[in-house]
Design brief:
Blueprint: H1 15-37, H2 42-77, H3 81-96
């Protein structure tokens, strides 16, 4: 439910789950830091980085799904579908341009 100081976002319904997932990712990043401090094998570190990237991709896809189902839909109903689509596609483009 939207309030004056906190609007409803596409992820509002799953905010607790999203926060838990992000905290888990944060722990994984700290784990990689420890691996580097402990001079662990390069491939092991890279494997963990890959796992974190996959976890972040899942978070991003969930956010995109919520954005389309909530924000873009609301924007379309308000007559801003072109603007919302342009914004969405720019965001997807940024997500895909890695490395």
């Amino acid at each position: 439910m939207a309030t004056a100081d906190r609007p409803t976002r596409g992820y509002t319904a799953t905010k607790d789950q999203l926060t838990t997932r992000l905290r888990r990712i944060e722990g994984q990043v700290r784990g990689i830091e420890r691996m580097v401090e402990d001079d662990r094998y390069c491939i092991d570190v890279l494997t963990q980085i890959s796992a974190i990237q996959a976890a972040l991709d899942k978070v991003a896809l969930g956010l995109l799904d919520g954005h389309v189902r909530h924000c873009v839909q609301e924007g379309s109903e308000a007559g801003k579908s072109e603007e919302m689509t342009t914004e969405l596609m720019a965001s997807v483009g940024r997500l895909l341009r890695r490395g």
